[in-house]
């Protein structure tokens, strides 16, 4: 079987539209955060989610010693927050709010406070399962979306709305 080209694999996976999250945790009183789009719900009973973290990242080290973390779902207005926690922009001036056993971003669209449930090695990443202990969500908001290596949105484009529900 031929080997899959890593760049082609990444480009192909980039065609799958994802939301954008920031994973936060607190270790020894210090808050750590990381942008992640590899997040999904796993189970309703018990309520489980998963995130995938590069095994070489600081967040992988933090989650191996932390007992809790938060998945912060970003709104369209938070592209700079995502860039900051991805390591590609300057100082972030937002604030954290205590949330469960961890912290959340104060203006996120939604957040899930999780207890570390299990971790599994998977290639160059670690799959971290979280048992959801608390939920926060704003009443309104538009999600930040990532597609083809760029930030975008599902709302605000009238040409896209015109196509909803129709075969184009």
TrEMBL record:
SMART domains: Flavin_Reduct
InterPro entries xrefs: Flavin_Rdtase-like_dom, NADH-dep_flavin_reductase, Split_barrel_FMN-bd
Keywords: Oxidoreductase
GO molecular function, one term: oxidoreductase activity
EC number per UniProt: 1.-.-.-
Ranges where the Flavin reductase like domain occurs: 13-153
Entry keyword annotation includes Oxidoreductase: yes
SUPFAM superfamilies the record matches: FMN-binding split barrel (SSF50475)
Top-rank lineage group of the source organism: Bacteria
Pfam families listed in its UniProt record: Flavin_Reduct
Name listed for the protein in its UniProt record: Flavin reductase family protein
Species this protein is from: Alicyclobacillus sendaiensis PA2
Lineage: Bacteria, Bacillati, Bacillota, Bacilli, Bacillales
